[in-house]
Design brief:
Structural class: alpha+beta
Strand content: 35-45%
InterPro entries: CheD-like_sf (IPR038592), Chemorcpt_Glu_NH3ase_CheD (IPR005659), Cytotoxic_necrot_fac-like_cat (IPR011324)
Family: Belongs to the CheD family.
Largest sheet: 5 strands, mixed
Number of helices: 2
Function: Probably deamidates glutamine residues to glutamate on methyl-accepting chemotaxis receptors (MCPs), playing an important role in chemotaxis.
Order of helices and strands: EEEEEHEHEEE
Helix content: 10-25%
Protein name: Probable chemoreceptor glutamine deamidase CheD
Catalytic activity: L-glutaminyl-[protein] + H2O = L-glutamyl-[protein] + NH4(+)
Length: about 160
């Protein structure tokens, strides 16, 4: 497998997002968090968000990328600023790994984050082209905006 090549590499921390052009590669590390990538194949622009929670109880004055619904809103605002429509993008979902596998799926934040991602794809009429969700442990995600490719490396909780 060929690693992505780009002039600029951006590392996303939890709660951050980035939207940019072809000469950029975006990296992040995910546990129970989820990353959503948007890629416009004709314009070779796109972005990624790394959210921590499905939503917040009380909306704030500004959008906060820590929350799924607000993180996707930030990405879609960037898409609009580039005079593109959401349905023109290829969307990929990553993360939602169980960091504490002994806990129930229904009380697990990873499970809630995965459900939120899928709900947002449907709500915003986005074209889901791939997903790598769930499982145990964490993963590294690298998104190359020049070609839309995403590389994922898994690290199971049982591996050293």
């Amino acid at each position: 497998m060929t690693r992505p090549t780009a002039d600029t590499e951006i590392f996303l921390q939890p709660g951050e997002f980035y939207f940019g052009c072809a000469a950029t590669r975006i990296r992040t590390l995910l546990g129970s968090c989820v990353a959503i990538t948007l890629w416009h194949p004709a314009r070779m622009i796109g972005g990624m968000c790394h959210y921590m929670l499905p939503n917040r109880q009380k909306p704030g004055r500004t959008l906060d990328g820590k929350y799924a619904d607000e993180a996707i809103a930030l990405l879609l605002l960037e898409a609009a600023h580039h005079h593109t429509r959401p349905e023109e993008y290829q969307v990929k979902l990553f993360g939602g790994g169980r960091m504490f596998p002994g806990y129930s799926e229904k009380t697990n934040i990873a499970h809630s984050n995965v459900n939120a991602a899928r709900l947002l794809v449907t709500r915003h009429h986005l074209r889901l082209s791939a997903e790598d969700l769930g499982g145990n442990g964490h993963r590294e995600v690298i998104f190359d905006i020049s070609n839309g490719h995403v590389w994922v490396r898994h690290q199971d909780l049982n591996e050293n």
